Automatic annotation (TrEMBL):
Activates KDO (a required 8-carbon sugar) for incorporation into bacterial lipopolysaccharide in Gram-negative bacteria. The gene is kdsB. Transmembrane segments: none annotated. Pathway: Nucleotide-sugar biosynthesis; CMP-3-deoxy-D-manno-octulosonate biosynthesis; CMP-3-deoxy-D-manno-octulosonate from 3-deoxy-D-manno-octulosonate and CTP: step 1/1. This is 3-deoxy-manno-octulosonate cytidylyltransferase. One of its GO terms (cellular component) is cytosol. It is an enzyme of class 2 (transferase).
Amino acid sequence: MKIIAVIPARYEASRFPGKLMQILGEKTVITTTYQNVVETGLFDEVFVATDSEIILDEITKNGGKAVMTGQHETGSDRIAEAVQNIDCDIVINVQGDEPFLKLEPLKQLIEVFKQDDQQEISLASLKIQLSEKEEIENPNNVKVITDNNGFALYFSRSVIPFHREISYNVSYFKHIGVYAFRKEALLQFSKLEMKPLEISEKIECIRYLEYGMKIKMIETNFVGVGIDTPEDLEKARKLI
């Protein structure tokens, strides 16, 4: 299989405009993310897909690969445009605001497709268990619930599952925005109309569920910092 990584990078993020160009250590957030993905050595090719000349210039001047795309509602739509004419089998979507992603969870995602002999999995993604009440209730943390085989049932910014039966302990999982797609599933996604649940939650992977596609979730112990707010950026600066 030919496996590539694409980092969707939109400059005008709604909650924190220009966040990918903020300085993290000695480099910008987007350059840090790009270089960390390249350094895993897992991919035949890595590039940034952006609608911003600022981000394009930032990546290319630092020796990276980047392509311009049109305006898109979701990162998956942006990646679909970027890869439609690229010969590949699996596309890993690494969020530009997840600069601390490690090698092991990426290897786990790739392994999902190597073991999927029936090719029933459209995409795979990561989840990590939450324990702090504040983190569970934070709407910036997308929660996911799965079936017994690890396939996603639903994603939400609300607390799911609702803990009504207090005598029973339930586990809460945060969705980490790293996806591995079959190329054909990604291209199909980009042609599908947004449905009410995705529009309401503003969570793009719900579109796959609404159209009956299978999302395999892999539990990881990876702890990074997704940079959605200025406060997240400060956490990331302390971590680096």
